[in-house]
Amino acid sequence: MSSTIWSVDEHLDDILATVRPLEPIELQLPDAQGCVLVKDVVVEVALPPFDNSSMDGYAVRIADVEGASEEFPAVLTVIGDVAAGSAGLADGQVVEPGQAARIMTGAPLPAGAEAVVPVEWTDGGTGEGPAATMRAHSDAPEGATGEVRVHRSVEAGAHVRERGSDVKPGDLALRAGSIVGPPQIGLLAAIGCATVVVRPRPRVVVLSTGSELVQPGEELTGGQIYDSNSFALTAAARDAGAIAYRVGAVTDDAETLRATIEDQLIRADVIVTTGGVSVGAYDVVKEALSSVGDEDEPGSGIDFRKLAMQPGKPQGFGSIGPDHTPLLALPGNPVSSYVSFELFVRPAIRALMGLPDLHRPTVRAVLSADKALTSPAGRRQFLRGTYDEEAGTVTPVGGSGSHLIAALAQADALIVLPEDTTSAEPGTETDVILLR
C-alpha cells in the first residue's frame, strides 16, 4: 500500500481514466432494456401508419350531421363495419352522402368519411334513445346495416388519429445515449424496429470477505455477523444499471479468494470486493491481490491506497485477469463500503454503459441540525442525511460511525463536508449528494 494520501477526486479520476465503455452489440428489443443506445434511431414508418378512429362509433361525412340533435337527429344508412385490423369497408365501398359505417377504435377511416361520431352520440342503430355501447358483431351482425340516428354534429377530423400525427418518416425517434426503458421499447416496436445497437449492461460481480460473515437465515455463533455488504452492493449495482451477481462471503484465506476471483472473471466486466483492504493481519484482499499483475503489462495489478475521506479511507483499484478486468476493493464497514460504491463504483458502471452523466445529482442545501457537525481536518467527510427539497434543507441521520447501517437505511442523501472544514454550524450551506 502506498504511503501517499490520495484525494477522493484523484482516486476517481484514476478509475475513470482506466474504465472504457463496453463494445456495442445488436440486441433484440426485450434484451435491450436498461442498455444505452449507440446510434440514433430514425423513423421509417409513420405512426400511426394510417388515419384511424380513436373511438367506437360511426364514420360519417360532416355535411350529413350538421345541426343534428336528439330532437332532430340525422338519419344515415349504415353500409357496413370497419374493424381494427381490417383494410377498410368490404369490396372497396366508399361512404357516400347520407351514409355511415360502424367503426371500431383503431380501425382505418374508410374512404369518403371525414370524421367519427362516438356511439354515445347516436342511437346505436336501435331506433331508441342514446346508446351506451355497440352490440358485438357476432351477436348482432345486422347492426352493420340499417339506419343510425346521429344526435350531434362533428367537425372534420373529429375522433380521428391522423397518419403520422405521432411521428413521421425521417423523424428522430431516439437519440444515441438514450437509456432503453419500457416507453422506449414501446416506441421502437411501434415503428417496426426489432433490434437496436446498444452498449450492454455491465456485468458486476460482488463478493465480500471475512471469516466472521454468515449468510442471512443461518444461525449466528460467537464472533459472527451477517453478511450485509454483498447484498447492499449487489442491489446498488443493479440500481446503477448493471447486471449484478452476488458471491457468498469468502473466508480470510488468500488462496481461496484468488481462486474465487479467477472463477468469476468469466462473467465479470467489473469485480467489486468489500472488506480486507486495511492494515490488519487478516486483511485478505490486500494480501491476495497486492502481488497480482503482469510484469509485461504496465498498469496491471491492484494498487491499495489511503484516501483523504471519511468513511472509506482504505481503497484498492486496478485490473486483473487476461482481459484486464477492473477490480475495485472497498472497505468492509457497511457505511464505508456503500459510500465508496456511490463515489467510485457507480460512476465506473455508468462509464462502462457509455453514459455521459456518471454521478448522482449534487445540490446545495442548508444544514438543519441541533448542533454543529465536526469533521477531521484534511479529510472529505460524507455524513448520512435526509433532504427536504421544498425547504432546501438537509438533516443529519445517525452518527458518523462507519458501522451504523440502520441510519444509512433512513438516509436519502450524503452531506459533504470538505477537507478544509472542521465544523459546520446549523444554517451552513453545504453540498449534498442525492441518493434517490
Describe the 3D structure.
It is a single chain. The chain is α/β, with parallel strands linked by helices and 436 residues long. Helices cover 18% and strands 30% of the residues. It is built from eight helices and 29 strands. The strands form eight sheets. It has a seven-stranded mixed β-sheet, sandwiched between helices. A hairpin with a 4-residue loop joins strand 21 and strand 22 (325-330). Helix 1 (8-18) packs parallel to helix 7 (334-353) and helix 4 (229-239) runs parallel beside helix 7 (334-353). It is elongated, with a radius of gyration of 32 Å. It starts with a strand and ends with a strand. The relative contact order is 0.13. The model is unreliable at 295-299 (pLDDT under 50).
Quick synopsis:
With 436 residues, this protein is α/β, with parallel strands linked by helices. The chain contains eight helices and 29 strands. Mean pLDDT is 90; it is low at 295-299.
Rg:
32 Å
> What distance lies between the first and last C-alpha atoms, to the nearest angstrom?
34 Å
Average pLDDT, all residues: 90
| Fraction of residues in helix | 10-25%
Which regions have little confidence, pLDDT < 50, spanning 5+ residues?
A: 295-299
General shape: elongated
User: Strand fraction band?
Assistant: 25-35%
Sheet of most strands = 7 strands, mixed
Strand line-up in the sheet with most strands: 1-19-21-22-18-14-17
According to DSSP, the number of beta strands is 29
Q: What's the assembly state of these chains? A: single chain
The computed structural class is alpha/beta
The count of helical stretches stands at: 8
